Amino acid sequence: MSFYLYKGLKKPLVFFGLKDKYIFWAAGFAIGGVIIALIGSNIHGLIGNLLGGIIGVGGVYFTIKTQDKKGLYNKRVEKVGKIFVFPNRIKLKK
What we know:
The structure is a single chain. This protein is mainly alpha-helical. The protein contains two helices and two strands. Helices cover 53% and strands 4% of the residues. A hairpin with a 2-residue loop joins β1 (14-15) and β2 (18-19). α1 (20-44) runs antiparallel to α2 (46-70). The N and C termini lie far apart (47 Å). The chain crosses the membrane at residues 21-40, 46-64. It comes from Candidatus Ornithobacterium hominis.
């Protein structure tokens, strides 16, 4: 297992259960949602405000679900070239 160590922390950067790149994705969606809500409220009023909120909250939810699917730490998947041997645990009576 490999992950980046941050010099001051001596451990991986995790914030509210989100790993480093997912923190930036969630913050981007949240800030983008606020900006869209501010601009949308000036143009369309309540509908623009709701649209910005839905985009912000939905983006953060998407980020959390994406990280849950891919995992918190980097994992290597090396399935090519491996042979899996399963022992025979059934004893046959002769």
